[in-house]
């Protein structure tokens, strides 16, 4: 399984013949200025919630690729009204089997609204099973106790967790989340993009090693194999 980081909380996951793109926020992100959005053509786009820093490039990518949008009902309806043809609405706790594997929506402790301030459903995370792997994409969230249930029920091999603080949990809470979910490999996200969420990467990785956690912080544009 290959994972390419496009900055902030945006990742392209290649599993078998399919590509899954999470939370595309690229063109407004100064740290991702070298990424060519026009070249990104996934099979599926998964959106965790409606904030602009998670879906700024979603409409363009969905239309240029013909990808299927997966997310909360309100998100898929909003994009459907903007001319996105292929959507799959879901809601918290729901699971669906796709041609690449399955997606289950999990809770996330966060707000969610569209750019005009209207209701965008509840914020979500995802448990994805694909190509013999299971992983957890937490979305924007605080630490919460029911992450233990995600670990007990689905036993992910690795997790994407926010670590930037201020708008989400910080790196220390993410280490607790990793223990709750039962993973020793974490891909950090939602950090460094804005002044509010700048982190000391070396320090947080050293702290993770103390806890027996491998915290991966790939460079923007870098592809890693998991």
TrEMBL record:
Keywords: Hydrolase. SMART domains: Lactamase_B. InterPro entries: Metallo-B-lactamas, RibonucZ/Hydroxyglut_hydro, UPF0173, UPF0173_UPF0282_UlaG_hydrolase. It holds the Pfam family Lactamase_B_2. GO terms for molecular function: hydrolase activity. Residues 7-190 form the Metallo-beta-lactamase domain. Belongs to the UPF0173 family. NCBIfam families: PRK00685.1. This is UPF0173 metal-dependent hydrolase SAMN05421823_101485. It comes from Catalinimonas alkaloidigena.
């Amino acid at each position: 399984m290959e994972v390419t980081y496009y900055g902030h909380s945006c990742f392209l996951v290649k599993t078998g013949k399919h590509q899954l793109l999470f939370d595309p926020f690229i063109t407004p992100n100064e740290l991702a200025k070298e990424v060519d959005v026009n070249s990104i053509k996934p099979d599926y786009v998964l959106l965790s919630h409606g904030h602009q820093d998670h879906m700024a490039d979603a409409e363009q990518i969905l239309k240029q690729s013909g990808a299927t949008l997966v997310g909360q009902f309100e998100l898929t309806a909003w994009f459907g009204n903007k001319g996105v043809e292929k959507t799959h609405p879901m809601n918290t706790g729901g699971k669906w089997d796709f041609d690449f594997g399955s997606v289950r929506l999990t809770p996330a402790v966060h707000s969610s609204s569209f750019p005009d301030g209207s209701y965008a459903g509840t914020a979500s995370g995802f448990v994805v099973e694909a190509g013999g792997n299971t992983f957890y994409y937490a979305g924007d969230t605080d630490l919460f106790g029911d992450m233990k249930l995600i670990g007990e029920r689905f036993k992910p091999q690795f997790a994407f967790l926010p670590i930037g603080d201020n708008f989400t949990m910080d790196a220390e809470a993410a280490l607790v989340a990793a223990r709750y979910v039962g993973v020793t490999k974490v891909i950090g996200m939602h950090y460094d993009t804005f002044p509010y969420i700048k982190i000391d990467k070396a320090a947080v990785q050293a702290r993770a090693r103390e806890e027996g956690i491998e915290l991966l912080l790939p460079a923007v544009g870098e592809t890693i194999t998991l």
